[in-house]
């Protein structure tokens, strides 16, 4: 009986579970999922939870029910790769035959004094919920800043504008323009949307310190009622502390078969895994598909493919509130209502077919 331990029930971990359990007649394995929450969360939508435009129960999907799956509601505190043991926060030890590390990411504060202690986060369901509670208590005509002009920061700022039209919102970005990873057509459209909707973009920002109700840009203080940090992520601390090779972003270097180079039974999926692609739910799911395929080959005594199938990502879709959006599908830029409708459709499909 093969024992697979999966750390984290995010997009990658859930996809491995779904693909393994899809083999209904196969009884030669069991899965233990270590996850803090009793449900899978739609992390790509946490910005809306923080802004207060969706309730958290709309962002939950129950894990599959199967005799081969055991749920352990706990946190991983350490991984002993040499011993095939996961240490849990409860003090228990969990042995494994195969390990899937899908612990996700955390905010990266880049050493900015006070940023971790004094800013809000959207990196987990609990933190996004806490952020919403604080934001909804802000006085009428209060001031909120979002640090980071990437996809998360832009969606958070836009959704917050829709949720609290009375607030003064600032979006700080260190570059010459927001969404610098996208074509000019997209970031120009989003910039114009923010101008029209009274969101102040601060380009060439350099956040040097964060206090409870104060943000310092180039050492110049600005009073704020809340500060939301979306300026970068890093792998989960447990993954970062592993004594294995990492890339320049701190992600775990893996082989083409998604496992650690010296540990063929330790696979990595999602934000913890080094990749040429930017982290995304799509990428994590594609990695999960391949890991499940490799596990079946391993258990059947078959060799791994010398060349793995190329991972093809469909594109990126972003929201500007509930009516407008932007996206990049291949090399085609989309702006306006169409990408927003597409994103809603993708989300609906995922929520209603997550067990497939």
What Rg do the Cα atoms give? 21 Å
Compute the separation of the termini in Å. 24 Å
Largest sheet entry:
6 strands, mixed
What's the domain count? 2
The CATH C-level name of the largest domain is Alpha Beta
Which descriptor suits the 3D outline? globular
CATH topology of the largest domain: FAD/NAD(P)-binding domain
Q: What's the CATH architecture name of the largest domain?
A: 3-Layer(bba) Sandwich
- What structural category arises from helix and sheet content? alpha/beta
Strand content: 25-35%
Helix count equals 9
Low-confidence stretches: none
Number of strands: 23
Please give the order of strands in the largest beta sheet: 5-2-1-9-20-19
Q: What distinguishing features does this structure have?
A:
356 residues; alpha/beta; FAD/NAD(P)-binding domain; 2 domains; 23 strands; 28% helix; flavoprotein; FAD/NAD-bd_sf; NADH-Q_oxidoreductase
Account of the 3D structure:
Helices cover 28% and strands 27% of the residues. With 356 residues, it is an alpha/beta fold. The protein has 2 domains: 2-36 and 73-106 and 234-313, FAD/NAD(P)-binding domain (3-Layer(bba) Sandwich); 109-231, FAD/NAD(P)-binding domain (3-Layer(bba) Sandwich). The chain has a 6-stranded mixed beta sheet, with helices on one face. The chain has a 4-stranded parallel beta sheet with strand order 13-12-11-17. A 3-stranded antiparallel beta sheet has the order 6-7-8, with no helix packed on it. A hairpin with a 2-residue loop joins strand 14 and strand 15. Helix 1 (11-21) packs parallel to helix 8. The chain is globular, with a radius of gyration of 21 Å. The model has no long low-confidence stretch (mean pLDDT 96).
């Amino acid at each position: 009986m093969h024992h697979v331990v999966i750390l984290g029930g995010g997009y990658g971990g859930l996809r491995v579970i779904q693909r393994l359990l899809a083999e209904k007649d196969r009884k030669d394995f069991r899965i233990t999922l270590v996850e803090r929450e009793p449900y899978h969360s739609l992390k790509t939508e946490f910005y809306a939870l923080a802004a207060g435009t969706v309730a958290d129960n709309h962002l939950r999907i129950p894990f599959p029910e199967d005799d081969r799956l055991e749920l352990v509601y706990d946190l991983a505190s350490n991984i002993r790769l040499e011993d095939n043991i996961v240490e849990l926060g409860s003090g228990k030890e969990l042995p494994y035959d195969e390990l899937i590390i899908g612990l996700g990411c955390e905010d990266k504060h880049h050493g900015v004094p006070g940023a971790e202690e004094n800013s809000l986060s959207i990196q987990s369901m609990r933190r996004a919920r806490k952020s919403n509670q604080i934001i909804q208590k802000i006085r009428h005509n209060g001031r909120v800043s979002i640090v980071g002009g990437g996809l998360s920061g832009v969606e958070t700022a836009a959704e917050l504008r829709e949720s609290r039209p009375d607030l003064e919102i600032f979006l700080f970005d260190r570059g010459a323009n927001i969404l610098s990873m996208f074509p000019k057509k997209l970031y120009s459209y989003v910039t114009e949307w923010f101008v029209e909707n009274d969101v102040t973009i601060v380009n060439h920002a350099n956040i040097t310190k964060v206090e409870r109700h104060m943000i310092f840009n180039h050492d110049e203080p600005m009073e704020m009622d809340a500060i939301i940090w979306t300026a970068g992520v890093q792998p989960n601390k447990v993954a970062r502390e592993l004594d294995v090779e990492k890339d320049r972003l701190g992600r775990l270097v893996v082989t083409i078969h998604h496992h650690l180079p010296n540990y063929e039974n330790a696979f990595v999926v999602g934000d913890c895994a080094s990749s040429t692609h930017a982290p995304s739910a799509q990428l994590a799911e594609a990695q999960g598909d391949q890991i499940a395929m490799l596990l079946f080959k391993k258990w059947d005594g078959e060799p791994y493919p010398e060349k793995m199938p190329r991972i093809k990502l469909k594109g990126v879709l972003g929201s500007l509130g509930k009516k407008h959006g932007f996206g990049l599908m291949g090399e085609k830029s989309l702006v306006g209502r169409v990408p927003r409708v597409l994103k809603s459709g993708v989300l609906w499909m995922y929520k209603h077919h997550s067990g497939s």
